[in-house]
Write a structure and sequence with these properties.
Number of strands: 20
Strand order of the largest sheet: 11-10-13-8-15-16
Shape: elongated
Radius of gyration: 22 Å
Number of helices: 1
Structural class: mainly beta
Order of helices and strands: EHEEEEEEEEEEEEEEEEEEE
Largest sheet: 6 strands, antiparallel
Helix content: under 10%
Length: 267
C-alpha cells in the first residue's frame, strides 16, 4: 500500500556476503552498518529460533542471492542482524496539488534551542505566491510522543525582538514517533497572495532538550559544500513564546523545519 520500508541491518558477517538462498540468521551484537529495503514478509518461514522473516532488497546487484526469493533479495529472520533498528516508512500522503512552502531545503539535519528545557518555540514566515487556503502544517518530530501547539499569525513586528500578532488559528496534538508529520488544520485559513503569515509551533519533547528541527550542516558534514551558507532569515526561535529572535548557528542564519501547505482558491 505504501511502498518499501527503508531500514538497516548488520551486514559484516561472511554469511551475509555468501547468502544464496534460505533464511539468513546472525545473532551477534554488532551494530547495523548497511542500508536495505524491506519489501515484504512471511510469518511462516522457519528458522533456528522460530518462524518468520523479512524479505529485503539489497544493493549488491542481482548476482548476490541469485537463488533466493528474487535475485538481489533475501529472507532475513525476524530480529536477526539487528534489522530494523533504524527504519523510515511512509504511512500516508497529502494532495499533491497543494503548494508546499518551506525554507529548509535539506529538511531536518540538526536540533536546537532547548535552552535547558524540553520546550521551545519555533516560527517561520511565509509569503504566499497565490491566494488560497492554508490547509496543513508540516514539521519534523525529533522525539517520540512530542507535544505540539500550532498557531498561525498574520502580522510580525519590524525588528528584534520580534513579536507576532493577529492570531488566525490554533491547533494542538501529540506525535507518536520520530518523523515527518503533516497536520491537517481543522479549520483552513485564508491567505492572500503577497501577504505574509507566520506559522509558530511550541515543541515539547518527551525526553530531549533540543526539540526544534533545523536545516543545518557543520563544516565536517559530507554535503556541506552544497549547502546554502546562509538560511533564509525567515526562521525565529523563542524560550518563552512571546519574543523571538532570528535563528542563527555560529553566526550564520539557518532555517527551521516548519512548512505550510496552501491550496489554490478554487479548491
Amino acid at each position: 500500500n505504501y511502498g518499501p520500508v527503508y531500514s538497516t541491518m548488520y551486514a559484516g558477517d561472511p554469511g551475509f556476503y555468501a547468502y544464496d538462498s534460505g533464511v539468513y540468521e546472525y545473532w551477534g551484537t554488532d551494530e547495523p552498518n548497511h542500508a536495505i529495503q524491506i519489501i515484504g514478509w512471511n510469518d511462516s518461514l522457519p528458522y533456528s529460533r522460530g518462524r518468520g522473516a523479512w524479505l529485503i532488497k539489497n544493493s549488491w546487484g542481482t548476482d548476490w542471492g541469485a537463488h533466493g526469493p528474487y535475485p538481489g533479495c533475501a529472507w532475513v529472520a525476524y530480529g536477526a542482524a539487528n534489522i530494523g533498528d533504524h527504519t523510515s516508512a511512509i504511512t500516508s500522503c497529502n494532495d499533491g496539488d497543494i503548494q508546499l512552502y518551506y525554507h529548509d531545503e535539506y529538511g531536518w539535519m540538526g536540533y536546537c534551542c532547548g535552552m535547558g528545557t524540553n520546550t521551545a518555540w519555533g516560527a517561520v514566515r511565509f509569503i504566499p505566491a497565490q491566494s488560497g487556503q492554508l490547509r496543513s502544517v508540516d514539521f519534523w518530530a525529533v522525539d517520540d510522543n512530542m507535544q505540539y501547539e500550532i498557531r498561525i499569525f498574520d502580522d510580525i513586528s519590524d525588528s528584534s525582538p520580534y513579536t507576532f500578532s493577529n492570531q488566525l488559528g490554533y491547533q494542538n496534538g501529540t506525535t507518536e514517533e520520530v518523523g515527518y508529520y503533516s497536520v491537517s488544520l481543522n479549520t483552513p485559513i485564508t491567505v492572500v497572495k503577497g501577504d505574509d503569515f507566520v506559522v509558530q509551533i511550541k515543541f515539547t519533547a518527551s525526553g530531549y532538550n533540543y526539540p526544534i528541527p533545523m536545516d543545518y550542516l557543520s563544516s565536517g558534514d559530507e554535503y556541506y559544500s552544497d549547502w546554502h551558507a546562509e538560511g533564509s532569515g525567515e526562521s525565529y526561535v523563542s524560550g518563552n513564546g512571546k519574543t523571538f529572535t532570528k535563528l542563527s548557528i555560529g553566526g550564520s542564519l539557518t532555517d527551521i523545519g516548519i512548512r505550510a501547505r496552501v491550496s489554490p482558491e478554487e479548491c
